[in-house]
């Protein structure tokens, strides 16, 4: 098959062997696959996984790796011991996890589990979910990105006595905003340096847009929270006003620590980003303020399914997130373009 192959820190498009499905695996044709920031982190920072002994994500610079974990694909064959519950020709998506004889692997981040930047890949039959509509595959594949922020927003359980602040309006921040909006939470304050991303945040459900080059995020949040307190109960007002729930969706060193130093006492922080090289945090300040920090962890399976259904059914419109589509030969240049913060939330590969 043809694939955009990562090896030795470089991506080039060439012909490699087709993957062969093992027990319980499906062979699928990649129809569309989004380029994610984690693809860039994976290829740029092979040292980041050095302390991960799970074996799920492995970057061996001397072995071919086909990235791409946000895919929509078509079933073309079955491996041994499959139930064959999904007919051939059916479009599917799945959590990007593949069970192998050597353990679980992250699809697109392991030599044993090639991803959607190639013509074919393998899926775990038990995790495959059928696309329930005729929506284009380049829309459906965005569901995996949606699931990450969707899960964070669901787990946060933001109450009517809290005002959420979303810092970073890339794909994950936008997915947080989309689910908070669907849950009826608000007002939602969205922060990003890039005007186009702030406007996409508005399209996905944000109420207040903040350019941190002009206004400090927590100054803006306090103004919004003060106005919101006017419509809240006397009990909220008596307790000092609304609480703050921050979703950190940037993944750049220094951002999470700036949240710790800038937020009010008792703030709840959901860190969905994460610099590959880690970050130094002022834990004494976090302790003094009584902060509660929840780190990522990826979407829960039930939240992935919910997000997939919302996108496939059209209940959640993700078209504002979609940028251009590219072919396999254009993947190396598209990966470089995805580094541009002013670019679209998703560039999608059509193999």
TrEMBL record:
Keyword Oxidoreductase: yes
Keyword Glycosyltransferase: no
Domain Alcohol dehydrogenase-like N-terminal residue range list: 22-126
Domain Alcohol dehydrogenase-like C-terminal span(s) in chain numbering: 171-293
Domain of life: Bacteria
UniProt feature coiled coil, ranges: none
Keywords: Oxidoreductase
Name this protein carries in UniProt: Zinc-binding dehydrogenase
Naturally occurring in which organism (per UniProt): Nocardia jiangxiensis
């Amino acid at each position: 098959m043809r694939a955009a192959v990562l090896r030795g820190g470089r991506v080039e498009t060439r012909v490699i062997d087709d993957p062969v499905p093992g027990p319980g695996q499906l062979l699928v044709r990649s129809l569309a696959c989004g380029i994610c920031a984690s693809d860039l982190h994976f290829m740029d920072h092979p040292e980041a996984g050095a302390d991960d002994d799970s074996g799920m994500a492995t970057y061996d610079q001397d072995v071919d790796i086909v990235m791409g974990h946000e895919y929509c694909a078509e079933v073309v064959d079955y491996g041994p011991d499959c139930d064959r519950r999904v007919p051939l020709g059916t479009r599917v998506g799945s959590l990007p996890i593949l069970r192998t004889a050597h353990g679980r692997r992250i699809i697109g981040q392991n030599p044993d589990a090639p991803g959607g930047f190639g013509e074919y890949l393998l899926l775990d039959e038990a995790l495959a979910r059928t696309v329930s509509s005729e929506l284009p595959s380049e829309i459906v594949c965005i569901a995996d990105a949606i699931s990450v922020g969707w899960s964070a927003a669901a787990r946060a359980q933001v109450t009517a006595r809290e005002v959420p602040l979303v810092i970073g309006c890339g794909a994950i921040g936008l997915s947080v905003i989309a689910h908070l909006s669907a849950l009826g939470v608000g007002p939602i304050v969205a922060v990003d340096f890039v005007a186009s991303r702030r406007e996409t945040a508005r399209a996905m459900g944000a109420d207040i847009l903040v350019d941190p080059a002009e206004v400090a995020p927590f100054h803006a949040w306090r103004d919004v929270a003060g106005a919101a307190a006017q419509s809240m109960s006397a009990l909220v007002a008596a307790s000092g006003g609304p609480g703050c729930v921050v979703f950190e969706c940037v993944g750049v060193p220094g951002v999470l620590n700036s949240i710790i130093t800038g937020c009010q006492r008792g703030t709840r922080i959901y860190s969905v980003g994460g610099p590959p090289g880690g970050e130094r945090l002022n834990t004494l300040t976090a302790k003094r303020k009584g902060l509660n920090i929840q780190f990522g962890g990826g979407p829960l399976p039930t939240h992935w399914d919910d997000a997939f259904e919302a996108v496939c059914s059209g209940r959640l419109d993700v078209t504002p997130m979609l940028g251009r589509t590219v072919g396999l030969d254009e993947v190396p240049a598209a990966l470089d373009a995805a580094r541009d913060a002013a670019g679209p939330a998703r560039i999608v590969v059509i193999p």
